[in-house]
Amino acid sequence: MANETGRGFRLSEDWLATIVGLVIVAVLGFGLLGPGALSVKLSAAPGASVDGTARALSGWKASATLGSEALALPADMPTRFENQTVYALTCANGAISANATQDLTLSYPPDGALLTLDNQCDGDLVVTFTTDPILRWAPFGLFTR
Amino acid sequence: MASAESINKSGTPQVDEVVTSAAPKRGGFWVGLVLLIVLTLLVAEIDRWIAASFRAQGVASNPFEYPLTAVIVGLIANLILRALRLHDYVRPALRTEFFLKIGLVLLGARISLGDLFAIGAGGLIQAVIMVSSVFMFTWWLGGRMKIEARTKAVMASAVSICGVSAAIAAAGAVQAKREQVTYITTLVILTALPLMVLMPSIAHALGLSPAVAGGWFGGNIDTTAAVVGAGTIYGPEAQSVAAVVKLAQNVFIGFVSFILALYFAVVVERDQGQRPTPMVIWQRFPKFVLGFILVSVLASLGVFSAPLVKEVNTAMQWLFALAFVSIGLEFSLTDLRKAGWKPTLVYMAATVFNTLLALVVASVIFGNYS
Asked: What are the C-alpha distances in Å from B321 to residues A16, B66, B243?
């Protein structure tokens, strides 16, 4: 409730705090600044294939491990997933390759892409795609563990 | 939360004195705000270092939660500012209640009623029994010991629900003083730390199954981080059950805060002979509780995705850290002394009651759990 004073109109601290809180929730919670820190993890044993889905947006960063070792990624590893597109990742001879194709006969998630991982390498393969949090100011994440 | 005014025998203004002689200076506000932000960043860095130390010991979550670190950092700055005679200059920036209230609106994003139904009947039944029984016991014992109503409300919420978050939410709902919040949150954190280490050892000695042990930890230890810590020490299954039981109890924050806000507006703050009309109740009711409930309802409807809840939660932690640094900066040892040892005794008795009841309830509910 607002307090009226002789010289004007002032919001009480309760209402001001409520409005500020709701604005923060609207900006962060409704994703007005972005979808937040997303993560998609694909894990495949040697000789196995797995599928996954990811939101169609840019800013994805990939990392991979083969066994317990970090795996170097090719320069054309996707950083942007397009809607209704299949991204086929293949591991062979200790290296990953990526190939994007559009197949409209498949069923896609809304505003999403399909990911497939085919592991023809010797060890367990884990490929992880992540996006940055909304607020990229480094200290903001200090409490996030 | 109300701010108090007091003058000691020599006439020296106390820490919580309301400044009336000198109008708040705009320069002091900005200098104070910068100082507050710098101190809060320092708290975050210290908190990260503490968390890393616990992780090195195999404890995944930091049980020494940031509010206590923030109060200690604020208190040290408080002493330095007083020695330099700069404390009154920066005081206009110390908007403890404002930061807490904004943070509480954000807290709603973490409280989803969907969680309550997703955890299964066992966790839900245990949560209902534990929250209602421990809250009523603490409220009753606090009354018997003549504990002030707001301290009693903050304490009963902290012991019965989920420690620091519940204490902050209840403090906002009943408009408790900052000394009352500090007193209870300090008790919560200092009690949770030894319980996190002791309870897994006792559970081993009693030969409890992982599920019963997890139910016991989740139903008894007040802070979520310490619950997860105790579960981690006992094993993955205990950790999972402990987290689920704690999660179920956390959901009660909103419900209890709303009831407390209403109870204090209608009953506790009623002037003698005054009839609490709807308008009077509305004027007294802390409005940000409505914001908290609105956000919680949206979270329950699944409006916020998990990554976005995490973002809102991080913003909430920064606001609470700002608030607790402010509490440290405004800390009044005199008012804390005035509270005496009775709240500590009641808190300890409530913790013992909680421990025994949680053991019985967890044994009954999770005894045949597989």
From this structure: 19, 7, 24
Selected for mutation to probe chain B from A20, A131, A136 (highest B CB count within 10 Å) is: A20
pLDDT tens for A9-30 read: 677 888 999 999 999 999 988 8
- The SS3 assignment for B65 reads coil
Compute how many other C-beta atoms are within 10 angstroms of the C-beta atom of residue B85: 8
Q: Which residues in chain B are contacts of A15 at CB distance < 8 A?
A: 287-288
Contact B291 A18 (CB under 8 A): yes
B305-330 residue pLDDT tens: 888 888 898 898 899 889 889 888 88
Burial B6-33 (b: 16+ CB within 10 A, else e): eeeeeeeeebbbeeeeeeeeeebbebbb
Facing B47 at nearest CB: one of A22, A38, A142: A142
Q: Encoding tokens for residue B80?
A: 């330095």
ipTM > 0.90 (yes/no):
no
CA distance B296 to B302: 10
* Residues of chain B with a CB closer than 8 angstroms to some CB in chain A: 41, 44-45, 47-48, 51, 61-62, 66, 97-98, 101-106, 108-109, 282-283, 286-288, 290-292, 294-295, 298, 303-305, 307-315, 317-318, 321
Question: Are B287 and A36 inside 8 Å of each other by CB?
Answer: no
What's the whole-model pTM score?
0.73
| Angle subtended by helix axes B149-157 and B164-174, to nearest 10 | 150
Tell me the residues of A at the B interface, defined by beta carbons under 8 Å apart: 1, 12-18, 20-22, 24-25, 28-31, 35-38, 133-135, 139-145
How many angstroms away from the CA of B28 is the closest CA of chain A?
A: 20
